[in-house]
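cache lookup: miss for this entity combination. No prior model stored, computing from scratch. Input as submitted by user K.M.:
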Amino acid sequence: MSDRLLVATRKGLFELRGGPGGLAVARRWFLGEPVTAVLRDPGDGAIYAALDLGHFGAKLHRSDDDGASWREVAVPSYVGLAGDPPPALSMIWILEAGPATSGGGGSLWAGTIPGGLFTSHDKGETWILRRGLWDDPMRAEWFGGGFDQPGVHSISFDPRDARKLAIGVSCGGAWLSDDGGERWRVSTDGIWAAYLPPEERENPATQDPHRIVRCAAAPDVLWTQHHNGVFRSVDAGATWREIAIAPSSFGFAVAVHPADPDTAWFAPAISDQQRYPCDGRFIITRTRDGGDSFESLAAGLPNHESYDLVYRHGLDVDETGARLAVGSTTGSLWLSDDGGDQWACVNANLPPIHAVRWI
Amino acid sequence: MARVTFTDRLRHVAPTGTVEVAGTRLLELIDVIGADHPHLAAYVLDEHRRIRKHVAVFVDGGLVRGQAALDLVLAPDADVYVMQALSGG
């Protein structure tokens, strides 16, 4: 099992490591700074931390020595693009490592607000905007979800073929590429939006998939926690089927078991208008049969007066599928070593948590 | 020479204390200083070289709002402060 966890928060980046008493905060970086995304590239071990300095813009730092030192590198740029006003980088929302290709090493991908998807082939020194997505006429219909502008928050590669990837846009739908990100097609068949007028409910360009994840061992299976429901695809994102979950299908995060496409976890809240746990009882919901049934996992989680919300990157499962981490907006961090049957609170006083990632 | 001071918040990318720089507009000053502080411009300006929304520029004791700070012709002995606007949180 993974014994290192990166936790990106409103006020810094933390690393938890295993010790005699279990995992605990071992290192901390960028204290006081909002860390919006974090990645450890499994290919070369480089760690990336994206910051949102507010006053002074979005920044990206890379560590080539496992966190001993950091160096500021370039951020994706919208320079040269038309608009009134012209688009400008607001935030790096997700960082992912692209699989190695026949042409050489891996690549670094960034999903950003206001909606650009970028690739770097030199570890963040320079960036390329994926113009095929940016120039799609449908992008004009995108709008912000939780932020003023739309953004790319999920980037998922098909491990069988590095050229195939899926992304999620809030609010702009789910998109697929078969050629490494050159050309894109929106793919939301089966997904619908409760927040739009009836005639617009199936408009693919305005869907809000809060998070999209893929099963590593069964890459045709994708799960999305959408704004008004949970949807699952068994054909690599071509079509989606809605799945209802008690006590609520509203939430932001989803994690899928790396070896079992039928097992997935969610962190529900009441609704988009009441973003806290049902009855103040914080639970994780889990299915082990592809969404036919769900369990409410509560052992070790607060059973009353909880107002914790889990953001879209705040739930993660390790490579074994047994170890889970969930971090909340109120700075609580829980871990499970048995797939969610039992949870333990590691720290209830962290800053608001944006993302957790096993490394 | 204009006298330019950056908020202490930018100490890792800007000169410390007050520096004297030749130039008649803020962009010129940033470019001159940027020769020794290459990350500075991206903190004060966005990728289109617009002043960032929550960066506050004071010239000779007065706040110069928004992009006007870039257009303003500075007096030869202007005092320029580049600060962190409280509007940004």
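stored under new cache key. Residues 109 and 119 of chain A are 5 Å apart (CA to CA).
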